[in-house]
Amino acid sequence: LEIPADKTVTLNLNGKKLTGSGSTVLDVKGDLTLEGGTIENAGQIACVEDRGKLTVNGGIFNATNPSQAEYIACAIYQPGNGTLTVNGGTFNITGGVGILLRDGTLTLTDGVIFNHTSVVDLDKGKVGAADTEIEVGSNIVTEEGLEGYGVTVTLNLPEGYPAESIRENHP
User: Fold this and answer.
1) DSSP letters spanning 3-61
2) What is the pTM (predicted TM-score) of this model?
3) Phi, psi of 54 (to 5 degrees)
4) Are 40 and 20 in contact (CB under 8 A)?
């Protein structure tokens, strides 16, 4: 499902489930607000493109390892200068990471839960088109200054957010 750059959309799943069948369920180029429900996919749940805006207001997000051997799961991937706000929700990640930012801003509030399940013989892999490998198991991963991507990641996190759940990947 693509949200075009000139559109503002609110998707209220009202407790229902949306299951993806490709690499990304939600391609956010415009402004999308997610309200509750469950979204699952083998790969990415959402990709926040350059100047896209995603606001998550609760819900359950199940990202499992994709079938492509060199790639890992990633609930929300933000390669461009987008804006991501997560106001609660549960992220269940199997063989991957919760949120990967290569540029833009992330605001995370209290009430966000990340659960990680490991996959045998999988400790790192790729996300998106970049050729860098990301270690699995982190809630938030930042990659600033990656060639072909933006240059600045801004994190706005709740006071006391555990630093060990954030990984800075320097390719």
Assistant:
1) E-TT-EEEEE-TT-EEE--SSEEEEESSEEEEESSEEEEESEEEEE-TT-EEEEES-EE
2) 0.91
3) -125, 130
4) yes
Q: List the 166-168 sheet strands across, edge first.
A: 2-3, 24-28, 44-48, 73-78, 96-101, 140-142, 166-168
Question: What is the number of other CB atoms lying within 10 angstroms of the CB of residue 94?
Answer: 18
Nearest CA-CA partner of 30 in 46, 13, 14 = 46
Give dist(CA 129, CA 53) in Å, integer: 20
Distance CA 65, CA 152 (A): 28
Q: What is the pLDDT of residues 110-165, one digit of tens each?
A: 889 999 998 878 889 888 877 788 889 999 988 876 666 665 788 888 888 877 77
Round to whole Å and give the CA distance between 21 and 134.
23
Chain mean position to CA 3: 16
Of 97, 106, 81, 163, residue with least CA distance to 133: 97
Whole-angstrom Cα distance, residue 89 to residue 128? 23
Say how far apart CA 141 and CA 120 lie, in whole Å: 21
User: What is the DSSP pairing of strand 140-142 with strand 112-117?
Assistant: unpaired
Tokens of 58: 């609760």
